[in-house]
Amino acid sequence: MAGSTYGEVFKLTTFGESHGEAVGVIVDGVTPGVEIDNAYIQKQMDRRKPGQSSVTTPRKEYDTINIVSGIYDGKTTGTPMCILLYNTDMKPEAYDDIRNAFRPGHADYTYLQKYGIRDHRGSGRASGRETAGRVAAGAVARKLLERRGVEIVAYTKSLGGIKCETYDESYIEQNPVRACDPVAAEKMINRIHELAAAGDSCGGIVECRIRGVKPGIGEPVFDKLDAELAKAMLSIGAVKGIEFGAGFAAAEMLGSEHNDPMDASGFLSNNAGGIVGGISNGAEIVFRVVVKPTSSISKPQQTMNVRGEEQTIVTIGRHDPSICPRIIPVVEAMASIVLEDLYKRQGALHDQ
Amino acid sequence: MAGSTYGEVFKLTTFGESHGEAVGVIVDGVTPGVEIDNAYIQKQMDRRKPGQSSVTTPRKEYDTINIVSGIYDGKTTGTPMCILLYNTDMKPEAYDDIRNAFRPGHADYTYLQKYGIRDHRGSGRASGRETAGRVAAGAVARKLLERRGVEIVAYTKSLGGIKCETYDESYIEQNPVRACDPVAAEKMINRIHELAAAGDSCGGIVECRIRGVKPGIGEPVFDKLDAELAKAMLSIGAVKGIEFGAGFAAAEMLGSEHNDPMDASGFLSNNAGGIVGGISNGAEIVFRVVVKPTSSISKPQQTMNVRGEEQTIVTIGRHDPSICPRIIPVVEAMASIVLEDLYKRQGALHDQ
Amino acid sequence: MAGSTYGEVFKLTTFGESHGEAVGVIVDGVTPGVEIDNAYIQKQMDRRKPGQSSVTTPRKEYDTINIVSGIYDGKTTGTPMCILLYNTDMKPEAYDDIRNAFRPGHADYTYLQKYGIRDHRGSGRASGRETAGRVAAGAVARKLLERRGVEIVAYTKSLGGIKCETYDESYIEQNPVRACDPVAAEKMINRIHELAAAGDSCGGIVECRIRGVKPGIGEPVFDKLDAELAKAMLSIGAVKGIEFGAGFAAAEMLGSEHNDPMDASGFLSNNAGGIVGGISNGAEIVFRVVVKPTSSISKPQQTMNVRGEEQTIVTIGRHDPSICPRIIPVVEAMASIVLEDLYKRQGALHDQ
Amino acid sequence: MAGSTYGEVFKLTTFGESHGEAVGVIVDGVTPGVEIDNAYIQKQMDRRKPGQSSVTTPRKEYDTINIVSGIYDGKTTGTPMCILLYNTDMKPEAYDDIRNAFRPGHADYTYLQKYGIRDHRGSGRASGRETAGRVAAGAVARKLLERRGVEIVAYTKSLGGIKCETYDESYIEQNPVRACDPVAAEKMINRIHELAAAGDSCGGIVECRIRGVKPGIGEPVFDKLDAELAKAMLSIGAVKGIEFGAGFAAAEMLGSEHNDPMDASGFLSNNAGGIVGGISNGAEIVFRVVVKPTSSISKPQQTMNVRGEEQTIVTIGRHDPSICPRIIPVVEAMASIVLEDLYKRQGALHDQ
């Protein structure tokens, strides 16, 4: 109800504030008896962690996972896993001047309106740091999905107006912006360095492809596979839109163009993005999300404070000029969680 | 779990197949003591019903609501409302030839894969007819939101490649395509007639504006207002994408452009679309959804049948060349349901 | 949230008031492809229906089921089943004199306090008639459980102070009070006739035995099998307590007496009632519920009215002197629903 | 779904095993802006903790709470509270000999059947230690209820066959068995010492009284106040039954005796235990639970092991001869959680 929980069978609850003692996650509904290697989870954490390259924030969080429960003798027990990530490189004093001012693009104003109180230090609960718990839970889901033959990969499709023109999957984890096109990647890195120098930030588009999902996954009519993915993606702070398959381009297509014909080998096109009637059809699942420019910039901006006075604000602190590179493991994590949950729901329906 | 239910406090469950006895909805969690005029609900049903104009399917459903429970002496009692809509103009025999073939763009294949069995008549549960129950429930939510001062309006923004250039809200319900621009509307109507003659269909974009939502609505971190709206919209069969405020255009914006500055009177721009950190900020909520071209077309298409044989299919039957005009009341209904539910969740949080 | 729904995977929602148009139920999460014979469900309805013998209320409801959705060609489709039971023998005018007075033992006062409004006719939503929907849903669950080899039987263990001393399962459905002891049954019937003549009513105890449940069913820590059964039973209006296995007698036992020892063949006693740590252990599940005396009696009672004035009330109308005989199918239905839901949850946990 | 979560608005999720790193709880849906004194929560922890007197287990857990999130500047923020309780006095080696044997009365066998794997150390997740998290969450609920004027008190009503004959509320926390009768308390203490010496244990009855609940709390039809309390109480490992008001005695009462008459001042008796139709009626809420004898006894018992062989077992370790004294704060905690959640649900229903 209070919104910190996602999932019905494979279920996670995140907790923690950016500058509190720790952030973390509870994962319940985990298949028992599955070997989970700590390094497997840590690897995903490291893809999200700050300070990993010149294009990300210099905040130094080691994000070393601490599994408090749910594992015995290296295997899941089926009881809830609690994974803690202690906050280490906190500078709450850096936020003293925003205690009373509302930073444009941030949730400062809306949190105060909602709760009547807020923990302003580093955005508190609204911080992107909350997603660390999601990535830990997502790694557990990813492990379970591997056993089902499901593969998930996300990457930067465009950033700061620069678009990928080629697709080289092997290159994605080889460049700090996680772009799928080596030429575009180079330009994106330069763009980020320019923006960092100018105290500004930029948006981008992240694309996600999911292979190996069997047909039949997704629950009509409200918990459709695309509806659940849309919710999961829009629950990531910086995401402002999502489209599946042909997406918004479908607005200018005819039915005779958009419908995917079939032959005995399967679908001959994929305008549907692998989902029809909210259920996977066995084709590759493809969606794109738009990531807004980072709200924290050091250019002066006009705003209001809690006393209703107008003022100028400069958001100092340590920030990513573009969120795309570090949002990618979060997109993959949420996609993994959605899929593992819906697989288990399909299992429940057919249980004899 | 099985996906026929949406909402936590204000909660609806739809049921029924296109060519069964009836479709309908249960609405639970309704504020007690509210006067509900049957005509108020019926008005919304009439906006969605087939056969209302030359641009919609000729299937004739009167969609007369039958409130079975939850109302006494003209007022809600707080107990579940069951609203039934009997199916009247059914022609199941029209679907005999698709009993074994998978229509491109339809959920025929995916339903069979999911359930191992399906009611093929008029798409069964996957039919757009299922949304009739949502519109009935949405009318109840709309009534409750009116008491809160919330106003919701959706309209066709583009259709078949024709875009609205002006915005005249008073004109929306005056034209059969529900466009916001009289000039564009005329062109759209002609386009639909052409496509109907050619046995084809087209996509479009529907935009929705919501005014009067107080700041503070939406639940961090998974049940954000935009996440819930995204889920609700993508749960509508033909919707393939959603964007809020500046939407996908944010991919090419800088932080200094996208952030909405504030002064003492409020926000000076609305790139956020009225939602920051998943919580309403008091500005107008604006989102757009892309509606795919109607899957049912009478042009021959290549497909497969249940025996794995390739065949050609012509989808006869009675269909809308564009779903936009009739999807608009469904978009408004789902938006109403999302908001009323989140308002009540905010009420629960602050209840003393 | 509003409380009309039970279950996580196998899920039902009831609706309807005693003297409205109909009562009914939505069942979602039904295994697809299962043959459901209407007569199978109707048989359970007939066990609950009023007017079935001299010991029950003379209200005449035929309770003929009307399956609106979720079945095609005699098989479940996996989509929600809506089952309607029209109200036929209504005498709302019989309730005119209680429009303003609170009947002792009834929910008149509490409903008004909760909702600020109520449908007083025949107790409205608080009527035992609401359980008709549960019995219909329970019959679906029972069908699914039969495929798993699970058998559920409930019976009157004591009534009006008369206790069963023997156990003859084959006799239970042969006598109108559904007692398990022919000698006690005769006395119970006479007791009921006496009480009916005196305008009074009596309580009793119903026992339930469930056989064939495999070990491992039930979800630690809050959704234990006994916790779910307790909730389900206490959700039946007239039930005021429940005990498992040795039950309240355990208060005077030693650990060395209460612990059930095992040998290679299984458990050597069953003080646990088949449930340990909230999980089935493979032994027979045994519980007892206490059923309060029917609240509606024709003896004059002291009460208050909505204006705060004291008055005397005589509850006329048509009522059961003891609820035990007709509550038995409701107890079995709720037990079936709990078990089918937990079986499916176990299936979800282990789904690969 | 996996059962580690309770509540709809005020919601808790417990995690952790008896001999893992920690046990703990996440509490979501907490009213923001409420001052929570750490000492307030710790006081409840201390009432539950082991080693507090001669009648409890000598295991020494300090159970010092560690609030990881959800509090800022001494006040709740409305975001999830994570409360950790590190395990300190663990002796996992004490459990080596039960790694393969099923202890009678314990969940060893059922957990293995359910999950196919188990953490056997100190009963793992099935340990009573899991309730520490509930008591922490219950303290938060209690704080919120105090603001509503609600008061909850539980006490030992009978233990080892010794029954309280008088009621002195001020004495309850003055004696280690938490009995309400000084004479009975003395006998109970002696009984426990005898049983400890004999390597045996005993059961008892705990009664709970709740005052100050306004009429109207509880959700028809499945989430009745008594249904939710029943579920919450039966979710406590050692509880095997519950009864409200007159309880099982109602089986031998007439309607004219059991119905509670009213006058202008309220109800003249309380056979209903303060709940009618599943909704609070403003009278004192009264229920009793039966607590089974502690399963861990040092008398030799017959059992089976994982290889299917019969064997004798002596459960060494450190255990409470009766669970009643330490279960009392757990009963109060769960009652607090149920009530705060249902209060908030009532708030959601009437939110304007």
TrEMBL record, chains A, B, C, D:
<comment type="pathway">
    <text>Metabolic intermediate biosynthesis; chorismate biosynthesis; chorismate from D-erythrose 4-phosphate and phosphoenolpyruvate: step 7/7.</text>
</comment>
<dbReference type="GO" id="GO:0008652">
    <property type="term" value="P:amino acid biosynthetic process"/>
</dbReference>
<dbReference type="InterPro" id="IPR020541">
    <property type="entry name" value="Chorismate_synthase_CS"/>
</dbReference>
<keyword id="KW-0521">NADP</keyword>
<keyword id="KW-0274">FAD</keyword>
<feature type="binding site">
    <location>
        <position position="48"/>
    </location>
    <ligand>
        <name>NADP(+)</name>
    </ligand>
</feature>
<comment type="subunit">
    <text>Homotetramer.</text>
</comment>
<comment type="function">
    <text>This reaction introduces a second double bond into the aromatic ring system.</text>
</comment>
<comment type="similarity">
    <text>Belongs to the chorismate synthase family.</text>
</comment>
<dbReference type="GO" id="GO:0009073">
    <property type="term" value="P:aromatic amino acid family biosynthetic process"/>
</dbReference>
<dbReference type="GO" id="GO:0005829">
    <property type="term" value="C:cytosol"/>
</dbReference>
<dbReference type="InterPro" id="IPR000453">
    <property type="entry name" value="Chorismate_synth"/>
</dbReference>
<dbReference type="Pfam" id="PF01264">
    <property type="entry name" value="Chorismate_synt"/>
</dbReference>
<dbReference type="InterPro" id="IPR035904">
    <property type="entry name" value="Chorismate_synth_AroC_sf"/>
</dbReference>
<dbReference type="GO" id="GO:0010181">
    <property type="term" value="F:FMN binding"/>
</dbReference>
<dbReference type="GO" id="GO:0004107">
    <property type="term" value="F:chorismate synthase activity"/>
</dbReference>
<keyword id="KW-0028">Amino-acid biosynthesis</keyword>
<protein>
    <recommendedName>
        <fullName>Chorismate synthase</fullName>
        <ecNumber>4.2.3.5</ecNumber>
    </recommendedName>
</protein>
<feature type="binding site">
    <location>
        <position position="277"/>
    </location>
    <ligand>
        <name>FMN</name>
    </ligand>
</feature>
<feature type="binding site">
    <location>
        <begin position="292"/>
        <end position="296"/>
    </location>
    <ligand>
        <name>FMN</name>
    </ligand>
</feature>
<keyword id="KW-0456">Lyase</keyword>
<feature type="binding site">
    <location>
        <begin position="125"/>
        <end position="127"/>
    </location>
    <ligand>
        <name>FMN</name>
    </ligand>
</feature>
<feature type="binding site">
    <location>
        <position position="318"/>
    </location>
    <ligand>
        <name>FMN</name>
    </ligand>
</feature>
<keyword id="KW-0285">Flavoprotein</keyword>
<keyword id="KW-0057">Aromatic amino acid biosynthesis</keyword>
<keyword id="KW-0288">FMN</keyword>
<dbReference type="GO" id="GO:0009423">
    <property type="term" value="P:chorismate biosynthetic process"/>
</dbReference>
